[in-house]
């Protein structure tokens, strides 16, 4: 299957070590960089750069919380040294920053050997004490109908004979993510849930980078007894939803190539004490 993009277009570009990035990348890469940079990250003209240059807004300056909770020495992040990181030229950062969920998927899916390789890669997820508190369950074919039935049972939905809950049929392949915490005096359960969620996010990204479409879905009934039973969860385990996986439809690939979805302003995610 074809990928979302030609990754060679990124490999051709050099990683810059200095603060100023020379504009000498050739052809397609330059086009991609120009397009993505103008929409996603422009250190000189992006909205957050403008905000920084303008200083605090009147609201921020007069906010009593800002004045009472922040000590006088508090400066916020120091952006005076420009970054040498290039989220467009670096293929990993580019994949992270352009990833998106695909809700309507074509039927082709990765095979189980592909899944094994991808899971091998994401098992590097940060994991306190290496407890490996996560696992995935493959759901294909009629197992999706069994999942629909379990969701119906959990929601006390009664259908006419022959009707089924079609929600799990929105993709040919679902991967259930299970957080599987262990008793450990040094690693509370929430940390192990964080590791499991990290494995889910890494796998979403790994699938995306391998050319597949993914959407993480859950719902109010995810951990209802009937659904837990179907997945054979142990008492302490938590079902964290399902990755719906398939091929990215061609029409959507073309839209992706001209995407203008901006990334949010990073300043909202970064501060100092
Ligand atoms: C744990 C988890 C559960 C989610 N469950 C649902 C869901 O049930 N339905 C849904 O529409 N989106 C769900 N989402 C959000 C989508 O996966 C997706 O992130 C969202 O639509 C935004 O699209 P984007 O990933 O392209 O930014 C869930 C995300 C996470 C991390």
UniProtKB/TrEMBL annotation:
Residues 1-83 are annotated as: Disordered. InterPro entries: NAD(P)H_nitroreductase, Nitroreductase, Nitroreductase-like. It holds the Pfam family Nitroreductase. Residues 96-246 form the Nitroreductase domain. One of its GO terms (molecular function) is oxidoreductase activity. Residues 1-11 have a biased composition (Basic and acidic residues). This is Nitroreductase family protein. It comes from Brevibacterium koreense. The lineage of its organism: Bacteria, Bacillati, Actinomycetota, Actinomycetes, Micrococcales.
């Amino acid at each position: 299957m074809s990928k979302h993009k030609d990754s060679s277009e990124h490999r051709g570009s050099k990683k810059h070590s200095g603060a100023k990035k020379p504009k000498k990348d050739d052809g397609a890469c330059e086009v991609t960089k120009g397009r993505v940079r103008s929409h996603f990250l422009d250190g000189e003209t992006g909205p957050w750069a403008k905000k920084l240059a303008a200083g605090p807004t009147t609201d921020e300056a007069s906010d009593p919380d800002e004045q009472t909770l922040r000590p006088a020495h508090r400066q916020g992040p120091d952006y005076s040294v420009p970054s040498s990181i290039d989220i467009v030229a670096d293929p990993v950062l580019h994949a992270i920053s352009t990833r998106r969920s695909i809700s309507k998927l074509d039927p082709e899916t990765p095979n189980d050997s592909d899944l094994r390789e991808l899971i091998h890669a994401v098992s590097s997820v940060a994991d306190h004490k290496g407890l490996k508190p996560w696992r995935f369950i493959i759901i294909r074919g009629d197992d999706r109908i069994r999942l629909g039935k379990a969701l119906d049972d959990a929601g006390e939905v009664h259908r006419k004979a022959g009707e089924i809950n079609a929600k799990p049929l929105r993709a040919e392949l679902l991967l259930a993510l299970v957080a599987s915490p262990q008793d450990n005096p040094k690693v509370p359960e929430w940390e192990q849930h964080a590791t499991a969620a990290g494995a889910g996010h890494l796998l979403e990204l790994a699938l995306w980078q391998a050319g597949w479409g993914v959407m993480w879905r859950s719902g109010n009934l995810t951990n209802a007894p009937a659904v837990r039973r179907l997945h054979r969860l142990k008492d302490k385990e938590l079902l964290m939803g399902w990755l719906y996986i398939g091929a990215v439809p061609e029409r959507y690939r073309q839209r992706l190539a001209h995407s203008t979805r901006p990334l949010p302003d990073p300043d909202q995610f970064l501060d100092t004490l």
